[in-house]
Design a protein that fits this description.
391 residues, alpha+beta, eight-stranded antiparallel sheet, seven-stranded antiparallel sheet, 8 helices
C-alpha cells in the first residue's frame, strides 16, 4: 500500500478549517494499486476564503476611493440573495449514454485495426460541470456597483479522481495572491497551480475496457491538459438578461516523463508560499457580475443594490500519450493478445457509459463539492448510488 500524501504538505492559503479538513480527507485516501476499477469518480472542490475579501479591501483602500468599477458598465441583475451557508443543492441526473465502439472492424486489415484501436486508447477526455449555479461569489450584497469586489469569497478550484477508495489524481488551483491588483485595476483574477498528484500508470490511459495497463515501454509523452471555465447569468437594472456569459477560462498542460516520478510512480508537486510556479496556468477571468436587486429601506425609499453573484463551472480534463517505436514494431504480438482478450471480454466492448452527478455545499470545509461518477451503464445501480451518497 502506498500513501499519496506521505511528507506532502499542502500550501493552501484559504480558510483554516478548509485546509485542516482537506488534509484529513487526502490522508484518509490510501492507494491500493491494482486492476482498473469499473467506475471512475471525480470530486471537484470550489474553495472559499474568509481572508481574501480583507486583502482586497486593504488594496482598494490604497487607491482613489472614487474609482468606478468596470462592472458598472454591466449593471448586473435581479433575484433573491441566498446566504452562502444555506446554498445546499443536491441532484442526481442522467447525463446521457455514449456507446463504446467495437475494438475490431470487419473487412479491415490487421495492422490498420491495431493502429485505430491504439490511437483511440491514447486519448481520454471528460467534462465536469456544475449541476446548478453556485452561490455566492461574494459574502454580502453591495450598494456600490455590479463589479464591487468587496467581500469576494471565491478562492479557487480543486479536482480529485478516485476509484473506489483509491485517490489517483489531485490538482489544486488558487487565486494568485501576487496579482490581486488585477482584481482592483481590471476586475479580473488569475489562478496558480498549488498542488498536484499525478501518475500515468494509474491514469485513465489506455482508454479501454480491456485489461491493458499503462506501460512506458508501450506509451510515451504522457500529457495532462485541463481547461477551467466560469460563466454567469444576470439581469441588469433595465431588465436586460445576460444568459450564460463566459467570464473567462484557464488552461494548463503538464507533460509527465518517467524521470519526474517517485519510486511509487507518482509526480508530486507543491508550490510553497509565493514561489514561482513550475507549471504555468494561462488565461484570466472577470469577477462575477452582481445581480441588480433594488430594495426599499425602512423609510420606503427605493435604492439600488447588487447581489452576491451566482456562477457555473466547467472543467475539461484530457489525458493523452503516444505509442513508442518499440510497441509499434511489436504490433503483431499485441494484436494477437487483443484478439484473445476480445474473446473473453466481448461483453465489455458492448457496454455504454453513463455519468451521474451530485453537487452540495460543505459547511465544514466552506467549499462547494461536485461528485461525478462515470461508469458502464449496467454498473450504475441503486447500490452504487447509495455507496457514493448520490441519492
Amino acid at each position: 500500500m502506498t500513501s499519496l500524501t506521505t511528507s506532502f504538505p499542502l500550501s493552501w492559503r484559504g480558510n483554516k478549517r478548509l485546509r485542516q479538513t482537506a488534509v484529513a480527507l487526502i490522508l484518509s485516501c490510501v492507494c491500493t494499486l491494482g486492476a482498473k476499477a469499473q467506475a471512475v469518480t471525480y470530486k471537484t472542490f470550489v474553495y472559499t476564503s474568509d481572508e481574501l475579501g480583507s486583502e482586497l479591501s486593504k488594496l482598494n483602500d490604497e487607491r482613489d476611493s472614487s474609482r468606478g468599477y468596470l462592472g458598472d458598465l454591466f449593471s448586473a441583475g435581479a433575484g433573491a440573495v441566498k446566504g452562502i451557508a444555506g446554498g445546499y443543492v443536491s441532484a442526481f441526473i442522467d447525463m446521457g449514454v455514449n456507446a463504446i465502439g467495437s475494438l475490431l472492424t470487419k473487412n479491415s486489415r490487421h495492422k490498420k485495426e491495431w493502429e485505430e484501436a491504439v490511437m483511440k486508447e491514447n486519448v481520454f477526455q471528460t467534462k465536469i460541470t456544475t449541476v446548478s449555479e453556485m452561490s455566492d461569489f461574494y459574502d454580502a450584497p453591495s450598494l456600490d456597483g455590479a463589479m464591487d469586489p468587496k467581500g469576494m469569497r471565491f478562492d479557487g478550484i480543486g479536482c480529485m479522481r478516485v476509484e473506489g477508495d483509491d485517490t489517483l489524481f489531485y490538482a489544486s488551483f488558487h487565486i494568485d495572491r501576487t496579482k490581486l491588483y488585477r482584481i482592483i485595476n481590471h476586475s479580473k483574477f488569475e489562478l496558480v497551480l498549488d498542488t498536484l498528484i499525478l501518475s500515468p500508470e494509474h491514469s485513465n490511459l489506455p482508454n479501454t475496457q480491456l485489461s491493458i495497463p499503462y506501460s512506458f515501454e508501450e506509451r510515451k509523452n504522457f500529457t495532462l491538459a485541463m481547461e477551467l471555465e466560469l460563466s454567469s447569468s444576470w439581469m441588469n437594472e433595465i431588465v436586460q438578461l445576460q444568459k450564460d456569459q463566459v467570464l473567462g477560462a484557464f488552461r494548463i498542460n503538464i507533460p509527465v516523463s518517467p524521470d519526474l516520478l517517485d519510486s511509487d510512480g507518482f509526480l508530486r508537486y507543491v508550490r510553497h508560499g509565493d514561489d514561482a510556479p513550475r507549471y504555468k496556468v494561462s488565461g484570466e477571468c472577470f469577477i462575477v457580475p452582481r445581480s441588480y436587486m433594488g430594495f426599499r429601506d425602512e423609510k420606503d425609499n427605493f435604492k439600488d443594490c447588487w447581489g452576491t453573484g451566482e456562477y457555473k463551472l466547467a472543467i475539461d480534463i484530457k489525458e493523452s500519450c503516444e505509442v513508442t517505436d518499440q510497441y509499434r514494431a511489436n504490433w503483431k504480438a499485441d494484436y494477437k493478445r487483443r484478439k484473445e482478450m476480445t474473446k473473453k471480454d466481448i461483453g465489455l466492448l458492448e457496454r455504454s457509459w453513463q455519468v451521474v452527478q451530485r453537487q452540495d455545499w460543505n459547511e465544514i470545509t466552506r467549499s462547494w463539492v461536485i461528485t461525478t461518477l462515470k461508469a458502464p451503464a449496467d454498473y450504475i445501480s441503486k447500490d452504487v448510488i447509495d455507496k457514493l451518497d448520490l441519492k
